[in-house]
Inverse folding.
């Protein structure tokens, strides 16, 4: 029976039968021995497997939720796809959209072999935003209730709810062109020596090969607006606004820009009785931008009502467009109105 540093200390006081149950709390290794140890079988299975789908948009995406903390076995029952690095078994998810920023932790259990994860992230149009690989993942030695593992942590930005460039889809796979690589871990003897404060016997540390199969742990945490500091992707909003080209809108209380080519001299007409002659005036051009806070209170209230109505009807994109338009026209409360409306809609 495999005994980790944690279970070793516990086994001193407990029977061997009790140790078996403790090992089950660390990870469901007994249920997924083939995925953790059957590297040769996994490579042979991968060579004979066919791709499940035509492109990223047709992959089978499961729904991921903030607060998820679950095990993901990758084995012969998982789908296969031809990634740029080669064919791989994978697990795919659609990420939460109406949340704060997300902190995601992906850990791969180490048995006699290791499924070394790569994480592909895509926006709402299935355009790849980034691939998280070995630069983010690192070896974590067995401790407490966790065994030897490879672990990576990254952040998903949710600054603007409804932004089509938000990272929306996540695919976990392992590059076929790196299956020949290995990972060195600490030996059980070294871990036990550290736990019991004895001299390290000096046994050689195990070298673990990569495998197409494995056992993963997925954890998703809602940071509720805290942007986090690690591995953060900040998407640009899709509808870029040029502040030097304001829209012409003749409706009341909105900025109206006179055409740049307009010239104008008002021709004086012959004065009628008791009426002064009309004095020619120069063309008036409105400024390209409006200073924050210059909007009329009535107009600001109208925008806020429209934003709240759009959110209530589920049209987040329209609400965001109204908020942006109001801010450019001088509103100081439109953005906060949008945020509050979205929060209230989720209660």
């Amino acid at each position: 029976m495999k005994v980790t540093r944690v279970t070793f200390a516990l086994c001193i006081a407990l029977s061997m039968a009790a140790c078996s149950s403790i090992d089950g709390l660390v990870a469901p290794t007994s249920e997924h021995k083939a995925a953790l140890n059957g590297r040769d079988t996994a490579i042979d299975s991968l060579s004979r497997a066919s791709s499940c789908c035509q492109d990223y948009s047709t992959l089978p995406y499961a729904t991921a939720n903030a607060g998820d903390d679950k095990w993901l076995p990758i084995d012969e029952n998982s789908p296969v796809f031809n990634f740029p690095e080669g064919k791989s078994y994978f697990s795919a998810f659609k990420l939460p959209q109406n949340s704060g920023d997300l902190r995601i932790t992906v850990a791969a259990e180490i048995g006699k072999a290791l499924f070394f994860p790569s994480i592909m992230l895509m926006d709402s149009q299935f355009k790849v935003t980034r691939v998280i690989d070995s630069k983010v993942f690192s070896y974590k030695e067995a401790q407490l209730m966790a065994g030897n593992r490879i672990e990576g942590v990254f952040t998903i930005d949710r600054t603007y709810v409804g932004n089509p460039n938000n990272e929306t889809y996540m695919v976990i796979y392992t590059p076929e062109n790196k299956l020949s690589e290995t990972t060195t871990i600490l030996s059980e003897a070294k871990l036990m020596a550290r736990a019991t404060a004895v001299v390290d016997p000096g046994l050689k540390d195990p070298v673990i090969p990569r495998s197409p199969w494995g056992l993963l742990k997925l954890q998703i945490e809602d940071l509720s607006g805290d942007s986090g500091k690690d591995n953060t992707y900040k998407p640009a909003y899709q509808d870029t606004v040029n502040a030097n080209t304001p829209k012409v809108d003749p409706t009341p209380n909105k900025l109206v820009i006179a055409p740049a080519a307009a010239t104008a001299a008002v021709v004086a007409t012959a004065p009628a009785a008791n009426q002064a002659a009309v004095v020619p005036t120069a063309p008036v051009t409105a400024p390209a931008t409006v200073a924050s806070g210059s909007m009329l209170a009535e107009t600001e209230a109208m925008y806020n009502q429209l934003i709240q109505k759009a959110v209530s009807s589920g049209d987040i994109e329209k609400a965001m467009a109204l908020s942006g338009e109001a801010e450019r026209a001088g509103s100081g409360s439109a953005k906060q109105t949008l945020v509050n409306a979205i929060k209230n809609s989720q209660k």
